[in-house]
Specification:
Subcellular location: Membrane
Protein name: Major facilitator superfamily domain-containing protein
Helix content: over 70%
Structural class: mainly alpha
CATH superfamily of the largest domain: MFS general substrate transporter like domains
CATH topology of the largest domain: Growth Hormone, Chain: A
Number of strands: 0
GO cellular component, one term: plasma membrane
Radius of gyration: 25 Å
Pfam families: MFS_1 (PF07690)
GO molecular function, one term: transmembrane transporter activity
């Protein structure tokens, strides 16, 4: 008989001879499945968040803003850090890399722990780690060693906050509505990422660099209050001992240690040690072998693997994760070095350099929000992925035009296009990955997207530092400058401004850096 709200539902009448009964049952099952799919689509389209859901979204937005600020706030501060701690530009480089490295490697394991111990509990633990790291960085750190430790602890907390935001959203918001509402959290993250250099510049010019970390304390306090009261999600009630027994400790240790070794090798290459040396080859090799071993453990041995093989069951899923990695790589290659272009090539103040990155923010946020709304309405996302990559490719190529005399309207438009492109990608890739995943894997798929994006950011900063530092050292040595300057170019930006022969050096090195970003983008598009 005909159903008034959907497709025809066939009622199977048994045949006298029993012939064709299996086919009739199969056809009826298909009709019922289609009806359930239609009803589910209607429920998703009509879903509206209540007060509890809005409270969770607001909490995630606040702490995501905090994490994003912390990831980029040191961009304008690195030269000052190198001077105050008596370190080199390599030490300053590790101030950012140590955070991104620990932020990336812990994310998949934290997502798995949340399945066992609960979403709220792991989010709370992440905020506590972030707060502890902030304390180590600001009031306590008197040397780069303590500072690096604080940044690494912050990174663990930041990684947990990022991945738990993705997982919790997958729990409470239907897929069709996810792009629209996740734009709240994504917008806060994007805003923090680009406000970071400006705020860091203001602090280093008018107060002191440690205020970059004191700024976190109000956010940390707010997060510690909001998470217990606002994030109320159901959790399986079992004993703590049984939960500990379920954790894939061996797989988690193998993966985290291997990824750390690999990223340290990539970060050292060409910055602290030459490519091909044992100090670079050994950690990279150990990392690759360890990652392969952890994958084998997850697939063949682990009883409850923290890395689900089903996340990589199709070429579409693998392609989507690789896109997320390259997008993070290219985004942070620019966010870390565009402010340096303004300070070293155009001789802008740290505050002005941070302000000049605003075109990225002003267009990334609207681009992300518009794409979120369109994706929710149309139910399609591939057009946004392709459109975003085209805009990113064009803007990356045009970065080579940046020199001392580039007109404001030119660099502002290029950065605006760069922001629009990344705004389109941030939303569409995230939604695409969850759309092609199994329903039961939605949370883990979202967490894997966050991991791949953060991994790309970490690799992007490392590769950018390698390319830029090597070129700077070579060019400054050619000018006959002392080794103290040629091997510590970032820490001596103020001194090098007064040396007329060095004026084009930063520009030349940055041009090669932009060109390398274009090459990485070409690899992804191919």
């Amino acid at each position: 008989m005909a159903h008034p709200e959907g497709p025809t539902l066939t009622i199977v009448e048994p045949r006298p001879d029993g012939s064709g009964l299996d086919e009739d049952i199969e056809a009826a099952a298909i009709d019922v499945t289609k009806l359930e799919q239609l009803r589910d689509a209607v429920r998703q389209a009509e879903w509206q968040p209540g007060k509890q859901e809005y409270a969770v979204m607001a909490t995630l937005a606040v702490i995501s803003l905090m994490v994003a600020l912390d990831a980029t706030i040191l961009v304008s501060v690195l030269p000052t850090l190198a001077v105050d701690f008596g370190g080199t530009s390599t030490d300053a480089f590790w101030a950012g890399t140590s955070y991104l490295l620990s932020c990336a490697v812990c994310q998949p394991f934290i997502a798995a722990l949340s399945d066992i111990f609960g979403r709220k509990e792991m989010l709370m633990a992440s905020v506590l780690f972030f707060t502890l790291g902030t304390v180590l960085c600001a009031p306590i750190a008197k040397s780069f060693t303590v500072f690096f430790a604080g940044r690494a602890v912050q990174g663990i907390g930041g990684g947990g906050i990022i991945t738990m935001g993705q997982v919790i959203f997958a729990d409470i918001v239907p897929l069709r509505q996810r792009p629209k509402y996740f734009s709240i959290v994504l917008g806060a993250w994007a805003l923090g990422s680009v406000l970071g250099p400006l705020i860091g510049g203001l602090f280093v010019e008018h107060v002191y660099w440690s205020w970059c970390f004191y700024l976190n304390f109000p956010f940390c306090a707010l997060g510690l209050v909001l998470v217990p009261f606002c994030v109320k999600l159901s959790q399986e009630k079992t004993t703590f001992a049984s939960k500990l027994a379920r954790v894939d400790w061996i797989g988690g240790f193998l993966f985290i240690a291997s990824m750390t070794s690999f990223l340290i090798g990539i970060s050292w290459a060409g910055v602290q040690f030459a490519w091909g040396t044992a100090q670079v080859v050994a950690p990279i090799t150990v990392g690759v072998v360890g990652v392969l071993a952890s994958i084998a453990w997850e697939v063949y041995v682990a009883r409850e693997p923290f890395l689900r093989a089903s996340l990589f069951c199709s070429t579409s899923a693998i392609a989507a994760y690789s896109i997320a990695l390259f997008q993070g790589l290219i985004l942070f290659c620019a966010l870390y070095y565009v402010p340096f272009y303004f300070t070293a090539v155009r001789f802008s103040s740290p505050t002005q350099a941070g302000l000049n990155v605003f075109p990225v923010t002003c267009f990334l946020l609207p681009g992300s929000i518009v794409i979120s709304l369109l994706t929710s309405r149309l139910g399609k996302f591939r057009w946004a992925v392709w459109g975003g990559w085209v805009l990113v490719a064009v803007s990356c190529g045009l970065l080579v035009l940046f020199d001392q005399n580039t007109k404001t309207v030119i660099w502002a438009v290029i950065l605006a296009v760069f922001g629009i492109g990344h705004g389109m990608l941030l939303t569409s890739i995230n939604v695409g990955i969850q759309a092609i995943s199994n329903v039961e894997d939605a949370g883990r798929a979202a967490a894997m997207y966050a991991f791949m994006r953060t991994l790309g950011m970490s690799i992007g900063v490392a590769i950018g530092g390698t390319v830029f530092q090597n070129l700077m050292s070579k060019k400054l040595e050619e000018l006959g400058l002392p080794d103290e300057i040629s091997h510590n170019s970032e820490g001596f930006v103020p001194k090098m401004r007064a040396m007329d022969p060095t004026d084009p050096v930063h520009h030349d090195a940055l041009n090669i850096h932009w060109a390398s970003s274009c090459y990485e983008l070409a690899l992804e598009l191919n």
